[in-house]
């Protein structure tokens, strides 16, 4: 059974690379309210960075747009991060999520973003529609907090 949401924030920002570090730090600051372990915060920052970068560089092809970010946590310390874009969408989500899969042709990207998101969180869900956009939802249960 899901426990009740204790706290939530929503933000939207321009799909520009310069905002990636802002998004990462903002989610980290919000999650810090739960007094997580340093390594948990590092995992969260990395996962957010991958999802937001994907929205900017793939979803909107570096041409700009709006990225939507919703972050919440429940009373039992489950953090949920949703990154949404209204960009090009993903043709085959299952294929895109395979390690080393990339549509990048510049050689800049390694196709490891989804793999990183998956391994640094407890659950990764990707829903996408071609021409409509992509929603990436990640959940992470934070350790007990009574240290
Ligand atoms: N928000 C998105 N919109 C459209 N396509 C996406 C989106 N996110 C991911 N993709 C597609 O899924 C592929 C795999 O994404 P993933 O993050 O795993 O690797 P990458 O971005 O190509 O490389 P890396 O993350 O290692 O720099 C991308 O190459 C792209 O084709
Ligand atoms: Mg990526």
In short:
This protein has 147 residues and is α+β, with helices and mostly antiparallel strands. The protein has helices spanning 19-31, 38-59, 93-96, 113-120; strands spanning 5-14, 66-74, 78-85, 123-129, 133-141.
Give the topology.
Layout: E1 5-14, H1 19-31, H2 38-59, E2 66-74, E3 78-85, H3 93-96, H4 113-120, E4 123-129, E5 133-141
Antiparallel strand pairs: 1-2, 2-3, 3-5, 4-5
The structure holds adenosine-5'-triphosphate and magnesium ion (MG).
SSE order? EHHEEHHEE
CATH architecture: 2-Layer Sandwich
Q: Look up the CATH topology.
A: Heat Shock Protein 90
Low-confidence region ranges: none
Account of the 3D structure:
The chain is of the alpha+beta class and 147 residues long. The chain has one domain (5-141): Histidine kinase-like ATPase, C-terminal domain (Heat Shock Protein 90, 2-Layer Sandwich). Helix content is 32%, strand content 29%. It is built from four helices and five strands. It has helices spanning 19-31, 38-59, 93-96, 113-120; strands at 5-14, 66-74, 78-85, 123-129, 133-141. A five-stranded antiparallel beta sheet has the order 1-2-3-5-4, covered by helices on one side. Helix 1 runs antiparallel to helix 2 (38-59) and helix 2 (38-59) runs antiparallel to helix 4. It is globular. The relative contact order is 0.21. The model has no long low-confidence stretch (mean pLDDT 96). It binds adenosine-5'-triphosphate and magnesium ion (MG). Adenosine-5'-triphosphate is lined by residues 50, 54-55, 58-59, 85, 87-88, 90, 96, 101-104, 109-114, 134.
């Amino acid at each position: 059974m899901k426990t009740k949401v204790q706290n939530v924030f929503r933000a939207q920002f321009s799909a520009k690379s310069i905002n990636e570090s802002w998004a990462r730090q903002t989610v980290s600051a919000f999650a810090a309210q739960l007094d997580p372990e340093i390594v948990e915060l590092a995992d969260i920052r990395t996962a957010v960075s991958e999802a937001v970068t994907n929205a900017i560089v793939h979803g909107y092809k570096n041409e700009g747009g709006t990225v939507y970010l919703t972050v919440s946590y429940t009373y039992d310390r489950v953090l949920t991060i949703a990154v949404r874009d209204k960009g090009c969408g993903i043709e085959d989500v299952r294929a895109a999520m395979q390690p080393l899969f990339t549509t990048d042709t510049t050689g800049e990207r390694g196709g490891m973003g989804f793999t990183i998101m998956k391994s640094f969180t407890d659950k990764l869900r990707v829903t996408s529609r071609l021409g409509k956009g992509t929603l990436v939802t990640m959940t992470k249960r934070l350790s007990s907090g009574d240290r």
